Amino acid sequence: MLKASIDLGTNTCLMLMAEVESGYVNKVLGDYASIIRLGEGVDKTRCLQPDAIERTLTCLDEYKKIISKAGILPDDVICVATSQARDAENGREFFAKVAIELGFGFRVISGKDEARLSFKGSLLPGMVPSSHAVVDIGGGSTEFVTANDGRSIDLGSVRFTERYLKSDPVTDKEFNICLAEIDNKLEVLMDWRSSIPSDMQMLAVAGTATTLASWHLRLRAFDAAEVEKVQLTSANLLQMVKDLKRMTVKERCGQVGIDPKRADVLLAGAMIMWRTMEKLHFQTCNISSRGLRYGVLME
User: Fold this and answer.
1) Residue 148's domain is classified under what CATH number?
2) Which residue from 15, 108, 13 is spatially nearest to 297, judged by alpha carbons?
3) What is the DSSP letter of 41?
4) Which positions carry the signal peptide feature in this UniProt record (predicted)?
5) In Å, how far are 64, 181, 231, 298 from 293, measured between CA atoms?
6) Does residue 129 sit in the same domain as residue 255?
7) Domain span including residue 80
8) Which of 24, 30, 79, 117 satisfies CB 3.0 to 4.6 Å to 295 for a cystine?
9) What is the DSSP annotation of 207-269?
10) E strands of the chain, at which residues?
11) How many Å apart are CA 43 and CA 156, to the nearest integer?
């Protein structure tokens, strides 16, 4: 059965078209990603900004054209929104506009549901669910989830860049404050980590993780199959953090494997990923290019 899903996050808008049968994605017919930064300024203003809204509407209009060519109606697409929609006071108004103009009916999901669906959709073929902890680093929040328990905290690459990393390149003071705040946020997960096996494997998903893996491989074009072969260590991530810290945003844009539209928030994302490994004592980190958009189709 041909299905489609849209995952509208703080930084990206993702769409998946696939053949789905009995809860499994059998064949991917199209996997699309656009960096629209809908959550720009939401952490400070608690409102979706006009420019961000227009970027998102343009992206969704393009997605509508794609699914129409495939014979899928907008109201048959499973659409979910996450952190920025939970935070924005004008989120309900925005999604009403989307429904009227484009026909997409979005459901704003809770952090708990986001964690559960991200876990379900992130596991790669052959992975044993009980052996992996999925860490989904988003723009506004990060989800930490195993087969039995999930948490969501307001720790994201866009949110923490806007709060703490305002200089270009960032200053030592900004960096150290941001690092301390990341560690402080991660403290609430100590009980979660102690409740799972010490040898649990970390599986990182979403744009920060796939971009860092692409940069690690120096990929000139994104290749999901190659990215999913990558296994990073804390030392790998620390070196990436050091390199990103000394660069300007323009210099990051020139790095092979880094999407220029993600360059400004990548340092914060890398810091979150690095400190997660350090603070929660994960020895290695595998990468998945899948995630929430897969999970909603599978369910």
Assistant:
1) 3.30.420.150
2) 15
3) T
4) none
5) 16, 29, 23, 9
6) yes
7) 2-108
8) 117
9) HHHHHHHHHHHT-SS--HHHHTT-EE-HHHHHHHHHHHHHS-HHHHHTSTT--GGGTTTHHHH
10) 2-8, 12-21, 24-35, 78-81, 106-108, 132-137, 142-145, 150-153, 201-205, 231-232, 285-288
11) 10
Conformation bin of residue 22: beta by default, left when phi > 0, alpha when psi is -120 to 50:
left
CA distance linking residue 62 with residue 52, whole number of Å: 16
Counts of helices then strands in the chain (DSSP H, E): 14, 11
Contact 46, 88 (CB under 8 A): yes
pLDDT in tens, the chain (299 residues): 889 999 998 888 999 999 888 778 888 999 999 999 898 888 788 899 999 999 999 999 999 999 999 998 888 899 999 866 777 889 889 999 999 999 999 998 887 888 889 899 999 988 989 999 999 998 888 989 998 888 888 899 989 999 999 999 999 999 999 999 999 999 999 999 999 999 899 999 998 999 999 999 999 999 999 999 999 999 999 999 999 999 999 999 999 999 999 999 999 999 999 999 999 999 899 999 999 999 999 88
CB 138 within 8 A of CB 83: yes
Residue type, 204: A
Of 86, 108, 130, the residue that ends a domain is 108
Q: Helix 91-102 crosses helix 50-69 at what angle (to 10 degrees)?
A: 30
| Residue linked to tokens 């059965």 | 1
- On whether both 17 and 91 belong to a single domain, the answer is yes
Q: Among 69, 93, 108, give the residue marking a domain's end.
A: 108
Q: Which amino acid is at 42?
A: V
293 neighbors 6 (Cβ within 8 angstroms): yes
**228 shares a domain with 194:** yes
Is 86 found in the same domain as 186?
no
Radius of gyration of the chain (CA): 18
> How many domains are there within the chain?
2
